[in-house]
Amino acid sequence: MGIHSDDNAQGSLDFLTAISIFLLTMAYLVLQIPAIFAPFESQSADLQPVAYRTCMILAEDTGWWRNESTNQSGADWENASLNDVCRIGLAANKHNPNDFSKLMNRGKICILSENKIKELNRTYNSNRIIDHSNKSYTMHSWIRYLLGLDIIRTYSYNISLQYLNGTTAHPIYVPNNTHPALCIGNQVPETAEIEKMERLVAIEGDCGVGYLNIGDTNTSNITMGLPHLDSFTVKFENFSEKNRTADARLNVTLNNTDYNNVSVINESGLFAGGWHTFNRTVIDDYLCDSNNITVNVSWCNVSYMWVNRSDWGDRIGGMSMPSAKLVVCIW
Description:
The chain is of the alpha+beta class. The chain folds into two domains: 45-204 and 325-330, no CATH class; 206-320, Sandwich (Jelly Rolls), CATH 2.60.120. It has helices at residues 13-37, 44-60, 114-124, 139-146, 280-287, and strands spanning 63-67, 72-74, 85-88, 91-96, 99-113, 129-132, 135-138, 157-162, 175-176, 179-180, 183-185, 195-204, 206-209, 218-225, 231-239, 249-255, 262-268, 275-279, 292-300, 302-309, 323-330. The protein has a six-stranded mixed sheet. The chain has a four-stranded antiparallel sheet with strand order 13-20-15-18. A hairpin with a 6-residue loop joins strand 16 (249-255) and strand 17 (262-268).
């Protein structure tokens, strides 16, 4: 009898059964282990990007409004009807370099507008009910909706503008007269897991924009409160007629019940460009007995100007704008 060779291999049935059970068991464990530990996992992985995105939108975006019936839109949402607001942002508007009366759909990154800050805070505290996208919102929920904080889940939020030396335990809010300039949202809880995001920002003051003829004078009136106020800074940019910058002029006067049209800055010519500051000494000399003062700013041949208030932040280096921190808490 001859011996026959065979190249075919056969696996043991016991081995195949064992390896199948092993693979099924491993697959089950891989699927079940994350669910077992899910209740003990932190939510910070979810909160951190939401807090970062919210802080970035407020600090870098101007916001946007659009009226469907008139087909008009713009970045100055603070001047539009609340029903037309599409996005909320606090970044100061950039202006068309060829026409300073027109706004561009880009913000000055980390330079916030005093007007937008005031409007956001005023809107939140107005306690209105608004119909938006066929749904009724309180001001709290409307702002949450525009910031995208109720898409996947509903987040609680607290947004404020604070001095640089403020802390979580002892926040120091930038004041608007006797109230915080910006402090909106839920009260931050002491026990919940919270994601806090801060952005260092500068504050651009109330501004008036327009093309002014050489012979014209434009006046802007801004009321500010004492005793927090230490100084004013008036800044100019872009002369309407660059070949006649020597005709620019700047006149700043202070008024209250005891003094009328006290002149603190009266300059003309080339040196009227740039920024000019008068300090607390001037205010004390004339207005130390007053709780409120009115600043009258007149200018000529200037396309863009603003008045910065020292009490809206800290002075850093030679910056003409006060600095503060935008604080966003999400939970």
